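Objective 1.3, modelling of assemblies. Example input:
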Amino acid sequence: MSIAAASPVIILVRPQMAENIGMAARAMANFGLAELRLVAPRDGWPPADEGPKGMTQAAAGATHVLDALAVFDRLEDAVGDLNYLFATTARERGQAKPVHLPQEGMALAAGRVASGQRVGILFGPERTGLENDEIALADSVLTFPVDPAFSSLNLAQAVLLVSYAWVNARGAVAAPFSLPHNTGPARRETLLSFFAFLDDALERAGFFQGARAPVMRRNFRNIIHRMEPTEQDIRTLRGALVALITGGRGNNRGGDAVSRSGEEG
Amino acid sequence: MSIAAASPVIILVRPQMAENIGMAARAMANFGLAELRLVAPRDGWPPADEGPKGMTQAAAGATHVLDALAVFDRLEDAVGDLNYLFATTARERGQAKPVHLPQEGMALAAGRVASGQRVGILFGPERTGLENDEIALADSVLTFPVDPAFSSLNLAQAVLLVSYAWVNARGAVAAPFSLPHNTGPARRETLLSFFAFLDDALERAGFFQGARAPVMRRNFRNIIHRMEPTEQDIRTLRGALVALITGGRGNNRGGDAVSRSGEEG
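Predicted structure (tokens):
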């Protein structure tokens, strides 16, 4: 099964604004969806409005989605090859169908897609949404947990949420990056050596006085632990402290450590 | 604590397009976020571009967010009252910070907000994203599980995903509507009576013949059960079948049942 066949088909029914078609294509591409269908776009096909806010500009490079897009005159023709259909609606439409939020709906879709079914998701026109007869063609309704006081979602925003929920439901969710690999937590011996250095330096500076000295030492240790410092962090801190203690006159290696630490960022 | 104080603050750093400010306000309003701050918007304040694609039109009625918006010259001034800051980035920026996806990040935010902390989320300019020195002011990085081959999220789309993740993390997620209340599952006696009617009608029509008749009866029962029919569904089906059997000449009450069922949708 190709990647396209293994993801839901996004179907925009009578979309009005070319810019929203482009933004929807961009949102799909952000989350790996590839198959877009249009039913009777208001301004014909290809859309006349290709000015600065036109479809292609709004797609921001998601040309593979626009190039593969299919246009149909009738909704029935756009869904003929699909096994399961969701209809997105913003409000109660009085139809006796199961109602899903994006995450549970896309979990259901993922199960069907995994068993070889083709799933489609219908989105209505910007101002009016899907007509009741169009909703009646779907197996279930997909809606969004919007604030009831402000429930009007932009068309491309709705496509984005469904695409995002799809990626989450598919279970292949990973951040595209994480903490840099060279910054694991410092070894304990590095920390313990740093604590000893700190205790000694503060003792010499007359900082620890009276009965609270042990508490203050513990506080310093806890502050450092909460930073979850790396080896490099400890080298940086130690170098900075050496520079402060010596006023820049003393330990050149300390100064070197500080400037080396700057390279990490 | 007011609702605004109990939700994260969205901070757009050097936003370039007034339309994106409006779309971001709309996305926030969709999911109940109310507090928007701008740092040094490119076109000044208020934005000059208030034509057909301007900020107010793009906000599509989220005027309460725009009216309450605050503008700052410097990022430092925009975040002074906040306890915890996320920086959104699309790609690895080489900074030694925890990296969160929207859902885990907003779960973390929900815990902090619940304990009375104020949380902010930084979004960079459209073309370039946040600068490294701006990211360094944040406690952690928030990123999106985008397709690495097409990772460029629109600014307002990024605000939408974070707002949606916030609503999900807050645990107050509910569809704004569900199946209509008057459509609970049919009572068993209604189903059993319908099965008897169906068996009888098909028997009279000579449909059940040979050894497979028991299997076919069972298949009909299973088809009906899979529909999860309501009382009204069964009345509708029975009326339609009566009409078909009598060719419209017979049982007027059956015809009435069909037309009554149309009122439900």
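Chain B touches chain A through 57 residues (CB under 8 Å).
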